[in-house]
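Why do we care about 3D structure at all? Because function follows from shape, and shape follows, mostly, from sequence. That is the central idea of this module. The next example makes it concrete: a single protein chain, its amino acid sequence, and then its structure expressed as C-alpha cells.
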Amino acid sequence: MERYEVHEYDVLVVGAGGAGLRAAIEASAQGVSVGLVCKSLLGKAHTVMAEGGIAAALANVDQQDSWQTHFCDTMLGGKMLNNWRMAQLHAQEAPARVTELEHWGAVFDRTRDGKILQRAFGGHTNKRLCHVGDRTGLEMIRTLQDRGVHQGIDVYMECAIIKLLKDGDKIAGAFGYYREDGRYVLFKAKAVVLATGGVGKAFEVTSNSWEYTADGHALAYEAGADLIDMEFVQFHPTGMVWPPGVRGLLVTEGVRGEGGILRNKDGERFMFKYLPEASKNDFAANDEEAERWVNAAVASLKTDARRPPELSTRDNVSRAIYTEVKAGRGSPHGGVFLDISYQDPERVKKKLPSMYHQFKDLADVDITAQPMEVGPTMHYIMGGVKVGADTAESRVLGLYAAGEVTGGMHGANRLGGNSLSDLVVFGRRAGLGAAQYAKQLSTAPNVDDDQVQMAIKEMEEPFSRKDGINPYDLQKQLNQIMSTYVGIYREESDLLIGLKKLQELKAKLKQVVAIGDKHYNPGWHLCHDLKNMLIASEAITRSALSRKESRGAHCRIDFPNLDTRFGSVNTFIYDDKGEMKLIETPLPEMPAELKELFAKKEAQHA
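And the structure:
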C-alpha cells in the first residue's frame, strides 16, 4: 500500500496569497490543469495584512501621474539596484491589473466622479494607492479567491510542501504533507510556481504571520535556483509595541498617508531631522551618473505640501524611529507616537476602520482621541529567487516564482503599495510562463521515488530521537541571533558573530525532537520550518557581510555611505554541493530611453 496519495497537474502553484491565486487563475485560463496548495486555510493569506493600498498609476487623483513616474519612484526607492525590466513591466501593467480586479468584483473607495480613489504613500511622487479603506489586501484576496474557485481550480488546504522533485535538470513535481494529520502527498507536475511569501518568523519582532518561514526560498535554493540580494530586509516603521502579545502587528502606512504625524516623547515632530540630504560624501568615488541618481532621489523625497516628512521611504523612517528610541526620546513602551487624533473622528473611522478597531480591541486605545505607540517591525524581504522579468522562470527548468519569494523587483527597498501590484503583475506572468512551458512538454517528467523516500525519512527523523533539543528553544535562539546581529543596523563584527552562531544552530538542527504523533503537532512542523529559516538566515547574513556599503534597507555602521561599486552589482547565493556560496554579478544595463526619465525627473524638481 502506498504511503502517500498522488495527484497530477500540468502546473502546481505553491501558495494561495495574491501572487499564487493570480498565477493559478492565469495558468487555468491557458487551458492547463492546475493544482493550488496553501499552508493555511484558503483566504487566510498574508496578503490580507496589506492594508494601505495597491500602487498603480491610474492618475485618477493626480492627473499628471504616469507609468514613467511610477517606474522612476520604484527605481529610486530601490536605490537603483532593481531589475529595471521588472520595475518597468510592473509600472506599465499595474493599472491594467487593478482594472481587472475591479471587473472581477473588487470594490474600491471612490472619488466624487466615481473613479477609484487613490491616496499618498511613502516614496510615491503622486497619490497612487488604490484602496478599500485600510482593508485593501482582504478585498484583493476575496476577489481573486472567488475568481479562482469559479474556474474550478483544485485547492489543497493546510498542506505544506517540503521538497521540489526533479527529473535531471527540470522540475518533476513536489512532495508535502497535510498539517492536520501528517499524511504525505505527492504532486506530479510539469511546472511549479512558488508564491510562498517571506521569511519574517526568523526575526523576533515581525508583522509576518506564522506561515512566513522561508519555505519557498529554501525549496528553490535546494532545487538549484539562485537567491538574489538577500541582504535587503525591510523593517516597516510602524508596528504595534504594546501590549506585548501584539508586538510587531502592522500599523498600516495608510495612517501616515491620511495625515498621521510621528512625534517623540517630547512632542517633537522628529522626521524633519532625518530627510535625505544630497552630498558628494554619499559616494566613495566621483561618479557623475551615480550622483545624478541620488540628486533625483533627494529631489523626489523633499518635503512639501504634498509629501509630509512621515512619508519618506520605509528604510529612512524605520532608522529615524530606531535612532529616537536609542537616544532616549521614545515612548513609554519603547516606540514613538503616531498621532492622527487631530483629525475629525468620523473621518478617521471611515478612512482607517481596521486600525480603529485594532487599537481599540487590542490596546484599549482610541486613535481618534489618543496617539498610537509604534516601532519598527520586520516586514518584508526584497531578496529572493532570481527570476526572469518577462516569464518569472528561475534557473531551474519548470520552476517559476512570484511575489515576495522573488528578488529583483524592489531593489534595495520596497515602496509601500508596490507589493500588491507586484503580486498581480508577476503572479499573472508566472502563471502564463508556467502554462506555456507545460504545454511545450510532450511527456510528463519522471518522479524519482528515491527523492520521495529521502523526504519522508527527513520528516520522520525527529520522532526517532529519544531526547534532544526542543524546536521552540531553537527558534527562540534563531530569533535572537537575527534581531541582535542582523537587524536594522549592521557591522562586520556583529555579522561574523551572527554567522558563527547560525552555523552552530545548523548543527543543533540534527538534534531537534518531536514528541507525540503527527496529529495537530506544531512542534513537528517547526522541526522542518527551522531548516528553511536557517537557510534564509544564513543567506541574509552572508549577503550583508558581502555588501560593504549602506544602501536602502541595508545599513552598515562600518560602511555608512553608498559605494558606486556596489551600486552596479547584485549578490547571488547558490548551493554548491551542500555548501552555501556567494558571488557578485553585474546589474543588467538599463536602456538609454529609461535612463533619460531620471534626467527629466531631476529637471522637474530643480
